[in-house]
Design goal:
The chain is of the alpha/beta class and 435 residues long. The chain contains 16 helices and 14 strands. The strands form four sheets. It has an eight-stranded parallel beta barrel, surrounded by four helices. Strands 1-2 form a two-stranded parallel sheet. Strand 13, helix 11 and strand 14 form a beta-alpha-beta unit. The protein starts with 10 loop residues before the first strand and ends with a helix.
Length: 435
């Protein structure tokens, strides 16, 4: 059975093409900055939005029209697997990602749930044998079921902690079986609603204990994928413990975990934390912690995680600059943690959305290549910080200065001259590169 019979293999046709089911900028074999475009971008499809999302919102039921919607239970899970691999192959996307509960429904007990999960994992594994598509990362959904109402690894209920540990144990086994290149921890319920009834120290200590257990078990079974943590400030928790990149890095450093984790940075989560996407990427990069990204964008007029497909070329270009400066994403990738709008309910819309996102990132990458070739940002920054390249500034950088020497240098200066940052000039010039 074909689930997308009206769509053929998506090809690169160039920017002059008017075919909506073709790439205008994403050419996987094009060499950019010394790498194939596909190898730099490492695109991934998010199973939850693309194959389990139904277009529901807090005020209405789902609107999505999907060829697999008539089934239920494990039959529905199997149809989604079939549809997903047809989608990956027609789109030409090299990776996919999933939560455990995306691909298989829960049973009455964890033992039964694991049995159902094993059946679907076996099916996915068979499809992967005849496909070039790989698993970028998998993770555990420890936020949907009511058992996680108070959190998972940070729950006040030790039995919930035990359940979460067993669920991640299974997730690591699945990751090893399917060859996932990363394993993600997203603490949707790992936070607090109020400090009035919260033992903050115990919850953070338990979260660290949980991560150390995961590290130990991965070593025990020989799972070698990179561990990633995905920061988010709020929603569903009022205050999540992985608020932003800086908070997460500080937590990892405090508990001796920094060498075992990198960060999976999501654009929409950055804006919810009051940051830009490029800010969170830069903080991660300069700390050696940038591992992967979730590619989407939010709506600045709405205060929640709208998970829109990324089409903001300005923001994507700045994000790609950070990724290029990072030397790429290593084993990570560009996962489209994004969903079509509720009004875009036909199956073909799934292709239009991914094509738009992939073309946007490809265009951003090519723009960054031009910026790097001209040394655009490098020249700006070198010029702005020129005072630290010689004289007293160089002494400061090299550790040769102290308060006494700095006082002796400045005490008789009668005029300090600053130079304009010329921000408007820079933004105008950047626009010319982008457009």
């Amino acid at each position: 059975m074909s689930y997308f019979a009206n769509v053929g293999k998506i090809q690169f046709e160039g920017k002059q093409s008017d075919n909506p089911l073709a790439f205008k900028h994403y050419n996987p074999d094009e060499i950019v900055l010394g790498k194939r475009m596909e190898d730099y971008l490492r695109f991934a499809c998010a199973y939850w939005h693309t194959f389990t999302g139904e277009g529901a919102d807090p005020f209405g039921v789902g609107t999505a029209v999907r060829p697999w919607s008539g089934a239920s239970g494990i039959d529905l899970a199997k149809k989604r697997v079939e549809a997903s691999f047809e989608f990956y192959e027609k789109l030409g996307i090299p990776y996919f990602c999933f939560h455990d509960r995306d691909i298989a429904p829960e049973g009455a007990t964890l033992r039964e749930t694991n049995r159902i999960l094993d059946e679907i994992v076996s099916m996915i594994k068979d499809y992967m044998k005849t496909s070039n598509v790989k698993l970028l990362w998998n993770t555990a959904n420890m936020f949907t079921n009511p058992r996680f109402v108070h959190g998972a690894a940070t729950s006040n209920n030790a039995e919930v902690f035990a359940y979460a540990a067993a669920q991640v144990k299974k997730g690591l086994e699945v990751g090893k079986e399917l060859g996932s290149e990363n394993y993600v921890f997203w603490g949707g319920r790992e936070g607090y609603e109020t400090l009035l009834n919260t033992d903050l120290k115990l919850e953070l200590d338990n979260l660290a204990r949980f991560f150390h257990m995961a590290i130990n078990y991965a070593k025990e079974i020989g799972y070698t994928g990179q561990f990633l943590i995905e920061p988010k400030p709020k929603e569903p928790s009022k205050h999540q413990y992985d608020f932003d990149a800086a908070t997460t890095i500080a937590f990892l450093q405090s508990y001796g975990l920094k060498d075992h984790f990198k960060l999976n940075i999501e654009a929409n989560h950055a804006t919810l934390a009051g940051h830009t996407f490029e800010h969170e990427l830069r903080v991660s990069r300069i700390n050696g912690m940038l591992g992967s990204i979730d590619a989407n964008q939010g709506d600045l007029l709405l205060g929640w995680d709208t998970d829109e497909f990324p089409t903001d070329l300005y923001a994507v270009t700045l994000a790609m600059y950070e990724i290029v400066e990072n030397g790429g994403l290593g084993s990570g990738g560009v996962n489209f943690d994004a969903k079509v709008r509720r009004t875009s309910f036909e199956p073909e819309d799934l292709f239009y959305a991914h094509i738009a996102g992939m073309d946007t990132f490809a265009r951003g990458l090519k723009t960054v290549a031009k910026l790097k070739e001209d040394g655009f940002f490098e020249k700006i920054v070198d010029d702005r910080y020129a005072s630290f390249k010689s004289g007293i500034g160089l002494d400061i950088v090299n550790g040769k200065a102290d308060f006494k020497s700095l006082q002796a240098y400045i005490i008789d200066k009668d005029n300090i001259v600053n130079r304009s940052g010329r921000l408007e000039l820079i933004k105008g010039a950047l626009n010319e590169y982008i457009f």
